[in-house]
Amino acid sequence: MDPDEGTQADTSTGATVPTSSTRAAQFTTPQQLEASRECERQVDLYGKGATTRSKAAVAIAACLYQPNLEMSERNITDALDSYFRMLDEIDERNEEVGRGRREKRKERDVMGGASNGRRGESARKHSPAPRTASVAPSRSDRRGRSSGTTSTTMSSDSSESESSDSSPSTKRTKPDTSIYAWADDRRSLEHGLRIELRKSLRLLRAYGVDIKTAKHDLLNSVAAPEFPDAEWNNVLRGRAVDLDHVFSGQYSLGRDEKRVEKIGTVEISHKALVPSKTVLNSGDWVIAFQRTTEAISYAFPHRRPELEAYGRHILSLFGALAPTLQQRVIEYDRAVRRRTAAKRDLLLTDIDHFADLKTQYIDSGGANVCGEETKIGKSSGNNARASRRQEEPCRRWNNGVCPSQASKCRYRHVCLSCAGTHTVTQCVKAPARQA
């Protein structure tokens, strides 16, 4: 939508808002018109200083992304651009007003200083000459007054300079994303994405404007599902969720808040909750993934069919493997979700794109599987040696000097000769010892 056509000035905010004719070109149904009015209300609130830009942007995006609006991709994008331009105009107007106020204040200070100087000079001219009998100020007094005057002047100049240099601008410089190296190919590549991926990208960018505000609004919504606080950040940023953390939160009674400790000028933040449980089998995975599905679907409603289909895929793998091998499926799932979170052109249901991960984590010849079997082989060898050592008779017990009880001794308290419950000195089968 062209900002110069089909818009009118808002006298309260100074920004241009869409006229009824322009609104009708994009918003036709009653639901769309209501969404348009809500977007204009957010712009008006921002212009009056009743809300922040980030909150207004998130609210506008939420209005336009409602599934019942049935708006086309182009109309949503055009409407977003139009309303964001209005916010930019308000920022520019506020910046001009702030700049004008600073210039007037500086000019007033300069004029005030000159006027005070002229009044002082006039007073000195018309004041009577000092009497010769009056006591002249000492050298130290003159030096003190001169130093005080100089320091006062320098402090005033420094304060004015700092005020003009460090006064925060009302508008943060907006980066020029068109010069990014990937900007040329982004539009063409995004145009070819599936509709589910485009919806996810739009919501991720909307939440990314201010993650803190988006999360605060989400947690205070009535229908928000129960979910670990730290993992909501991963959901809103499109990152892979830690199922161990989700599963642990199911049983933990501790708080899931980030604690901040200060050491001098350094702040150290850490999670108060350390996962006390981990996903070890298919039952644990189902509990954690169902909670994750509800959380992701709340922030990205269009992803529910994808998550449910992926859950069925993982369950089929659990059913195809022996219970002792379920950990392989859990590691495969973790790798798949990590890859999908790193690439914005993949869905969890794109199983063909994860064939290498299936080989690596599940198949018998996979790199991770072979490495784990090597560790298990070494561990079993050590256990076998330990078992053999424990089966051996205790020589100290046979000699009557073992300090441990039979239940705590590393070796068996049996006869060295016949494995009976007596010592070798009492064994009748033992060969006679030579004197």
From TrEMBL:
Biased amino acid composition, Low complexity: 146-158
Keyword list, A-Z: Metal-binding, Zinc, Zinc-finger
The species this protein was found in: Polyporus arcularius HHB13444
InterPro entries, per the entry: Znf_CCCH
Zinc finger (C3H1-type): 388-416
Comp. bias (Basic and acidic residues): 95-110
Annotated PROSITE patterns: ZF_C3H1
Region feature (Disordered): 1-35, 95-175
Protein name according to UniProt: C3H1-type domain-containing protein
